Amino acid sequence: MIDLHTHTTFSDGTDSPLALVKKASSSGVSVLAITDHDSTASWEEAKAALHGDLKLALGAEVSCLTEDGISVHMLGLLFDGGNQALQQLLSDSRDTRIPRMKKMIENLQGAGYQITLEDVEASTPEGATVGRPHLADALVAKKIVKSRDEAFTELLHNDSPFYVSHFAPTPEDSIRAIRSAGGVAVIAHPFASRRGQSLTPDSFSSLVSAGLNGIEVFHRDQSEDERQQLIEIAETLNLVITGSSDYHGTGKLNQLGENTTTQAEWERLESMADQRRVVSR
């Protein structure tokens, strides 16, 4: 069982890297990708926790914005974690999150919601990259909403009047940075219309030109029709087809291994990195 998209407490997951590695191992996962938002800070703890036959495909989920302002997430896997250009790109994205969070809180306060930056900080695990899920958790703690899902559905989605965008590279720049660092780039849930705005089939031409390796087809936020469209696009453009859980622990309903990548597609994707970086015991 190969799961190529998960999160830990170093971004917006609720499992530590240690806990996630243990859960993956006991759940029968053979290859686990840890892809925290704009961060590789979880890598060392995850590697130290590795045991048994589990293998790690370490990476990050890069926050991107298209020229039209559509939010896109790019999974970078198997890249050189010491690559300075890519680490700078991730750092720049993280640095803009606090000003963005302050503005979102101001927007909510202006509408009468009793929420503060201190509330969000109290809901953010130490060392985590602050983001909308932590604001959602603070709204839950303040009993403004009942769950993270309700917070995003009602208040924090991309089309909400409370939403604020932040610095982010274009998907193309993100792909080029990942590939230059020796890794592979897989676009995450590109047709997830349940999240709001999404890409269109015409969007993929420039992504492929930039070096895109694969498409995350099997994801709970994409309908069966959307999955079939993506399969056709992947086959036409000779892109790897992946599936993954986008696991966040108790922060989302997603269950580890609920969508997976086939062994053949994983081997194809791994072969596209500039060297073998899968971590095993």
Beta-strand residue percentage: 5-15%
Secondary-structure element string: EHEHEEHHHHHHEHEHEH
* Rg, nearest Å: 18 Å
If you consult CATH, what is the topology of the largest domain?
TIM Barrel
Envelope shape: globular
Q: Which architecture of the largest domain per CATH?
A: Alpha-Beta Barrel
Q: How many domains make up the coordinates?
A: 2
Report on the structure:
The protein is an alpha/beta fold and 281 residues long. It folds into two domains: 195 residues, Alpha-Beta Barrel (TIM Barrel), CATH 3.20.20; 60 residues, DNA polymerase, domain 1 (Orthogonal Bundle), CATH 1.10.150. Helices cover 38% and strands 15% of the residues. A seven-stranded mixed beta sheet has the order 1-2-3-4-5-6-7. Helix 2 links the parallel strand 2 and strand 3. The two termini are 17 Å apart. The model has no long low-confidence stretch (mean pLDDT 93).
Please sum up the structure shown:
With 281 residues, the protein is an alpha/beta fold.
Detail the topology: elements first, then pairings:
Blueprint: E1 2-3, H1 17-26, E2 31-37, H2 43-49, E3 55-65, E4 71-77, H3 84-95, H4 97-110, H5 117-122, H6 132-141, H7 148-156, H8 171-180, E5 184-188, H9 204-210, E6 214-218, H10 224-237, E7 240-243, H11 263-270
Parallel strand pairs: 1-2, 2-3, 5-6, 6-7
Antiparallel strand pairs: 3-4, 4-5
Helix pairs in contact: 1-2, 6-7, 8-9
What tags apply to this protein structure?
DNA polymerase, domain 1; 38% helix; 281 residues; TIM Barrel; 2 domains
